[in-house]
Write a structure and sequence with these properties.
The complex is a heterodimer of chains A (about 300) and B (about 475). Chain A is α/β, with parallel strands linked by helices and about 300 residues long. Chain A has twelve helices and eight strands. Chain A has helices spanning about 10-15, 45-55, 70-80, 100-120, 125-150, 175-180, 205-210, 210-220, 230-245, 260, 265-270, 290-300; strands spanning about 1-5, 20-25, 60-65, 85-90, 160-165, 185-190, 250-255, 275-280. Chain B has helices at about 15-30, 60-70, 70-80, 95-100, 115-120, 125-135, 145-150, 170-180, 215-235, 240-270, 275-290, 295-315, 335-340, 365-375, 385-400, 415-430, 445-465; strands at about 15, 55, 85-90, 105-110, 160-165, 190, 205, 210-215, 325-330, 345-350, 400-405, 435. In chain B, the strands form four sheets. A four-stranded parallel β-sheet of chain B has the order 4-3-5-6. Chain B starts with 12 loop residues before the first strand and ends with a helix. The chains are: A alpha/beta (about 300), B alpha/beta (about 475).
Amino acid sequence: MKVVYTSAFVPPELIEACGFEAHRLAPRADPRAGEGALYAAGVCPFVRAWIAQAPRVDGAAAVVAGSECDQMRRGADILARRAPLPVFLLNVPATWQTEAARRYYRDELRRLAAFLEAAGGVFPSGDALAARMAAAERRRARERAAAAEAASRPAAGVPIALVGGPLLQEDAALFGLVAACGGRVAVNGLDGGERTAPRAFDPRAARRNPIEELADAYFDGVPDAFRRPDDGLHAWIGRALARHGARGLIMVRYVWCDTWHAETGRLRDELRVPVLELDLNDEVPLARYATRVQAFLEMLA
Amino acid sequence: MKEPRRNESGVRRLSLAEWDARYDELKAAGMAEPAYGGRLSRRLACGETRLATLKFDDSPAALRLWNFVLTEYERLEEARAGGEIIVGAMKDLGTVPVMAFALKGVRAFYPDGVWWMPCLMQGGDGLMETADALGIDESFCPVRAMLGAFVTGSQFPRPDLLTCSVGAVCDDFSAVAQRLSGLGHAILWWEMPRRRRPGPGEAAVPLPGGIAAPRAQVDMVAAELERVRGAISGAAGRRLDDAALAVGIRRANEVRRLLGRLREAAFTAARAPLPALEMLIAEMLAIHFCSDLDETRAVLAALLKTVEERAEAGAGHLAPDAVRVFWVNPAADLRAMNMLEDRGGRVCGTDYLFTHALDAIPEEAPPIEALARSALSDPMAGPAEDRAARILADVRRFGAEALVVSRIPGASHCATEGAAIREVVGGEAGIPTVEIEVPSVADAAEKSIGGRLQALIETAREGKSAA
């Protein structure tokens, strides 16, 4: 049985320790999805598609949404009213600088575990969670090593960074579009990319108090545009650009996404590399952006 | 000049030009005014040209209200010059100002309130263009004007302390405030968790407005407000203790109770004793007392007296059979309130997004906990169903016959919330509903907005006739 989620602050290790398969859903573009409230002007295309498709995932036992954006919060309310599955909204604090915010996030993870138990799973034992964390850490270590190895090889194309939120399935073709235009994605700062990986788990802390270590690794390790202040995101972008020698940055966001859209101005103010903003829309095929991407990469070449 | 038409009850709505003659008349009759008083038309010289397109209530109490609101930033400058500490309380709509005003020599204002400046100045303020240049374009709600105001320094003095609630707030505001922070304005961010219903067996705390929240959430907000208390104390150079806070809460509750009486009297009178526009402005005073708590009390008391006298005499605006309309969300263009009345609608019930600032703050709880409970009852922090349930209760209480959801252009919450509210209220109360989108200057959209309001009024009238 699957638990469907998308937020980078929902740890798949916890879902698995509760006895479910963690299914991170990248929905298909579906501009006519969710008649009624979700089909209104001003609704983010990603949220619209995700809310419509999450409860329909084969084998889904529950849906977990994150509170990072207003539209997803409200989408989860709609889903809770209409979906035949249990729905959980994980409240992720926007602030990060206080012990109260950290404690609140930890408590939210405990509440999530209780919810998953009620949805047919088990409340995870410390050992079960620690084992899942260790397995995830080994997998991420392998991925990091592979990425480092790939980065050390000479590669064609102008190195750039992609930064932004999650993508609809169709828009994952952006990576190919960048390559076709003579570029190379050296930094994946999108949701699901290296930006949203938690910091490495401390094995001793994970054995001593796994849920606290899990919470801290995600809470401290994932810089995001919704956090206040968002200095962690800008510091991460600066480091990633320098480490990979990225010569430009493409900010990718969906129309009506205020959180990522507002970052573009500051990035343009502060970065020493050019910034291109793409405001994707589920009613506009990605190919329509090709000219802008191509012009951007030609300028960087 | 032609004498403005009085209805048979003797009450008039005046244009700005007509107010000049009325002003002379009142002055000749001995009207006393506070220091910020004067002719409304003098505001045209400040660029507030939208006033020339509005229709106003003709009472001295309404004149005082308008002068109070329109002179806020000038009064703030005077307070700054007098050595007072100024707190800019962003987004929470009613909590931090109660704390700030609890310390003598400290006053709070609401920088978000500058969102009406592009309306008042019909775009002549240049605030939107400044925001545009910083990447905050028209896909954001008109509150982006605040960014322009901070950057240009053209509207209000730079606050000594700037606070902003974040978390379960609208993304537009959070993003605009973050852009401001990125430009070097120090902001104390405090967390507003997304309010949820207490789970089975979970300790629960009753909140104002008849809802409840888990104890853990109240404790979280209380811890955040302790940080705010520390910051205000730091800015003021003296401790904001519980005793001062308790007094501050009682003073704020006096304002809230006055406003409650005003709303009750205005919305339940046989005829509308005060136009929708003045009622909207009066309700806004609850958020931050328009930078002067004592004067807010005096302004509201004068309005209440006028309303009670008119209600007693059966006097009021509009025909007695005007359709009773519940209005949801503040309109970005103040003229929208006139538009409704021009079409025979009368506002009888409102939810301008700050109902938590209308409810009394619990006085029996320790002050910070009481404020936390009040803050958590913010309609923006909880699910749309909670907001819709309160609207439905008020629709029934005030006998509203139609519902208007006024969309704020670009606002993240408006995309889905209006439909949810209409579904609940329209379905349960069986009244016609409409959603309109009101830009900061709605002249170009007046035909469309007016047409939708007209259709709503006619549908409600048909329903009345059929009943």
